[in-house]
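User: Fold this; tokens only.

Assistant: Input:
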Amino acid sequence: MKRKPTHSRADRPHVTCLMEISVDGRIMIDRWPDPDLAEREFEALHRKTAAKAWLCGRVTMRYFAGAERTATKRLKQTQQRNRAGSSDIHVAAGMAKSYAVAVDPSGRLLWKRNDIGGDHVIVILTRRIPASHLAFLRERGVSYLIAGNDHIDFPAALAKLKSRFGIDRLAVEGGGTINASLLHAGLIDELSLLLFPVADGRSNTKSLFETPSPVPGLKAKSLTLLSVRRRPGGVLWLRYRVRK
């Protein structure tokens, strides 16, 4: 029986989950009293992390990609899976200074550019992606890596980000499902949260960590408080270490 490869802490980047939240843990700022303040504070904190790359899920990244496949134009799942080989990783721009990493398991994002504000784009895909979509990404000058068959293998993905792109510090910036996937996989080292004096009150918006379906045996994670700092507008900057 072929053993699944394991990845140690040294094989992957140091991962900080960097988010802005309301007092009830919501992460959508569109209805907050001062969304401009939220954006300014988040960008200031983003710069403080000194991370070489930032990572977001498909829903967040579709605002940057420029286009997205609709439900009626999704890639045909009957197409042959991409087989393991040299095409599992494509480095389009050599060793860039900084990266934007998009988690897009089914290849729905149609990139018009290969960077976001100067950060070179890397897309994380699963093996169900056909060769035609990989060719599209190469044509656009977008880097990619394949990790997992039907679902993203996050330990493998992070190991490839470090070994092939030299990313030693990574900022994870949502959404809630991506945050939870990495947290429960034991891949988040630190939380860096901007707590805004806002009570969102909506039950139909994403929270900081979201697990869409019940996972048997899933346990809560313990945190160690590292620091608390007050920011403009009554915002608190909270830093926690995730206990292993």
